[in-house]
Design a protein that fits this description.
The complex is a heterodimer of chains A (414) and B (288). Chain A has 414 residues and is mainly α. Chain A is built from 17 helices and no strands. Helices cover 69% and strands 0% of the residues of chain A. Chain B has two domains: 179 residues, Alpha-Beta Plaits (2-Layer Sandwich), CATH 3.30.70; 27 residues. Chain B has a three-stranded mixed sheet with strand order 8-1-9. A two-stranded antiparallel sheet of chain B has the order 2-3. Classes of the chains: A mainly alpha (414), B alpha+beta (288). The interface between A and B is large, with 61 and 59 residues.
């Protein structure tokens, strides 16, 4: 990746270029840029190939042939991690667009595109992973095309919101695609739609981030009482704020190493201020979250459950993966220590994984005689989904003006 | 074509009438008995554990015959090939049999969970599944407090299997095979109201035989399948921790908040957007 050509954002197309040349341009862009044998590729290619084989097996012999799902535990790693956790991590997009477009905090403008792109791809891949988990995926359009609206279902709401939010994020990101293709008129029209898409997108996010938690409201007797409460939706929503922002910090730290050449000088210098600002927001959101968890805990009088193995597990999550990273975040912006913020981001993300899995997998049927544990094949398919997403992310970053400055004509248009 | 005021009012009136009348007519015609849910009463003092219901259920629905030995202490479970199962428990009153299957709730969690209405409660009472709508998400299974819906994990075209109260047979005036053929008359079929009355009658007439409780009367908001038993239901492996309120009620609060947020949040966001934008231009003016 280091040998990559320094500048890919120069646009070879002029406005009046013919359709044929656009086609040729896209074709030339499809070719890989940079080295093929990087450590990431060497690890990810065999896993992706294995994953594809497993997906084929899954569609021929049924879900039971690759997963450990049972009649008692119908949702496992693919829903609990890929969808529920993945979407929480994608929450950065709605928070950052809120900061930049609604609150007009220009400071964060440089990370809008990469965050929205990340969010969009997360939805496409992690919500797309849902298709692998559907027993009858050919009926997936049923709740959308209108022959059967299950309006009383939380999942109905979540499905619609996923779809609409993907469209909203695509609109938010579309100016970058227009700049890549050199489509000036299209860019102007698409940029004009940004505010509407942002407002719509934030509303949708509020509802489906909480909706993912609300999915589990009816599983009252199946989830460990330390993780079940009528406040799951609110807890999921509040935690998606710092889950998403921690992901932004983490992803930013990696991008600054891997895609160093794409990042404009201006953005490199502004990174510190951005990270510390996000750290502050994370700390605030985490405080609210921790306080809310505490209220729920006290309100439900769960003291007797603390002195059990699940109780210790709960304390570990709350103290080690919420309170500790919150304190680290506070320290990081007090001391202006950007590395501390990155450490805090990683611990927070682990905490989110822990929390989402505790609700959806670990605490689900915690008292069953035979516990669900994912097969290596479920894990391989999950990794396949993640790696494929990173591949597409990298492909886009190296071609479109996401981390790099938009072309000069686009700035003038502004 | 011009429309004067009188014509307009007439049209409105006619339109209004046509909109109202069908409902008025319907309300006049239908009686409570037409709408009543069918239900079943299972009396575990009568059941002898012959497994006739299991065998005939499997035959009627083209499923493999029952597996596993029926004996005290061994808990067999319904699965994607067995819609009903009879188990035997050692209780304070000796060995007692109990049949398990879908409970056909009055307000089924599975049906309210289904985003395509593939799982639904029929007007007659049975909760049934239709394959041409189902997308196999298994949210019904996550939601059902009784774990009734079962999924065919080893099929490329998987179906949800569960007791349908022999809905197709019932639609033609028949009664479910298990109730029809039970040699001990442990299973009775009729309207849910009648079944509940029958259950109470048996309890009142034989207070020493039964515990004074009908499982399913209030459980999960009331179920179509009702149980009476000589011992507390917890001794028979029935889940007695299930709440008396219906399960769909648990997500109602969230679903009600959705339209509120959907209507109120965008204008609030737009307001903040306008407010901060103005601030910005104001600041710019000051600095200039």
């Amino acid at each position: 990746m280091k040998t990559m050509k320094p500048n890919n954002t120069a646009l070879p197309l002029s406005r009046d270029s013919s359709k044929q040349s656009i086609f040729r341009f896209i074709l030339s862009e499809l070719k890989p840029k940079g080295k093929i044998f990087t450590p990431f590729n060497i690890i990810s290619i065999p896993i992706i190939l294995t994953g594809i084989v497993l997906i084929v097996i899954r569609f021929i012999y049924g879900i039971g042939s690759v997963t450990n799902l049972s009649q008692e535990v119908p949702w496992g790693l693919w829903i609990g991690f890929d969808v529920v956790t993945g979407v929480a991590f994608a929450g950065g997009a709605y928070v950052i667009t809120f900061l930049v477009y609604i609150l007009n905090r220009e400071k964060y403008h440089s990370i809008v595109r990469v965050t929205v792109l990340n969010g969009f791809l997360a939805y496409v891949f992690y919500a797309g992973a849902l298709l692998l988990d559907l027993g009858r995926p050919w009926n997936v359009v049923n709740p959308i095309i209108g022959n059967s609206f299950g309006t009383s279902s939380v999942l109905f709401l979540v499905a619609w919101h996923f779809l609409l939010y993907m469209i909203a994020e695509l609109i938010e990101f579309s100016p970058a695609i227009a700049e890549w293709l050199g489509a000036k008129r299209a860019r102007k029209i698409l940029s004009g739609m940004t505010i509407a898409a942002v407002i719509f997108g934030i509303t949708l996010s509020t509802l489906h981030q909480s909706g993912l938690g609300a999915l589990y409201l009816m599983a009252k007797d199946k989830i460990h009482p330390l993780w079940y409460s009528e406040f799951i939706p609110v807890l999921f929503l509040v935690s998606s704020v710092f889950a998403g922002l921690s992901m932004v910090i983490f992803e930013g730290a990696i991008s600054h190493k891997v895609f160093f050449k794409q990042i404009s000088e201006k953005n490199q210098t502004s990174q510190k201020g951005i990270v510390l600002g996000l750290a502050k927001i994370c700390a605030g959101a985490m405080f609210a979250y921790f306080f809310l968890q505490l209220l729920v805990f006290i309100h439900q009088k769960r003291w007797d459950l603390l002195d059990t193995p699940m109780g210790y597990w709960y304390l570990l999550e709350m103290l080690g993966f919420v309170l500790l990273p919150m304190i680290l975040y506070v320290y990081s912006y007090k001391k202006s220590n950007i590395n501390l913020a990155k450490v805090a981001a990683i611990i927070t993300m682990l905490g989110i994984i822990l929390n989402r899995l505790n609700v959806t997998v670990i605490g689900f049927r915690w008292d069953a005689a035979i516990r669900y544990f994912p097969t290596w094949m479920e894990l391989a398919v999950t990794l396949t989904v993640i790696f494929t997403e990173i591949w597409i992310f990298r492909w886009i970053i190296k071609r479109m003006p996401v981390l790099s400055e938009p072309p000069s004509w686009a700035k003038e248009n502004k | 074509m011009s429309l004067d005021r009188r014509d307009f009012l007439k049209t409105i009136g006619i339109a209004g009438l046509t909109l109202c009348t069908p409902d008025i007519l319907k309300a006049g015609k239908s009686k409570d008995s037409d709408r009543e849910f069918r239900g079943m009463l299972y009396d575990s003092t009568r059941c002898v554990g012959c497994q006739t219901c299991e065998t005939l259920c499997a035959e009627a629905h083209g499923l493999p015959p029952p597996v596993g030995e029926l004996k005290a202490g061994v808990v067999r479970k319904t699965d994607d090939q067995h819609r009903t199962v009879v188990n035997c428990y050692k209780t304070s009153k000796g060995e007692v049999f109990i049949k398990t299957q879908c409970m056909h709730c009055n307000e089924p969690a599975c049906a309210s969970a289904c985003l395509t209405q593939a799982m639904y409660k029929t007007k007659q009472g049975p909760v049934i599944w239709s394959g041409n709508k189902c997308m196999g998400c298994r949210y019904c299974m996550v939601s059902c407090p009784f774990d009734a819906p079962k999924f065919e994990y080893h099929s490329a075209n998987p179906k949800i299997q569960k007791c349908t109260m022999c809905y197709e047979k019932m639609a033609k005036g028949g009664i479910p095979v298990c109730a029809e053929n039970c040699p001990a008359e442990a299973i009775k079929f009729g309207s849910r109201r009648e079944m509940l009355a029958e259950a109470r009658k048996r309890i009142v007439e034989n207070p020493d035989t039964y515990v004074d409780e009908v499982y399913g009367d209030h459980t999960a908001g009331g179920t179509g399948f009702l149980y009476i038993s000589p011992v507390p239901f917890s001794e028979l492996g029935l889940n007695t921790k299930i709440q008396n309120e219906s399960y769909p009620a648990l997500s109602k609060g969230f679903l009600y908040s959705v339209p509120t947020i959907f209507v109120l949040l965008p204008p609030i966001l737009l307001g903040i957007y306008e407010a901060t934008k103005k601030n910005q231009t104001h600041e710019n003016n000051e600095t200039e």
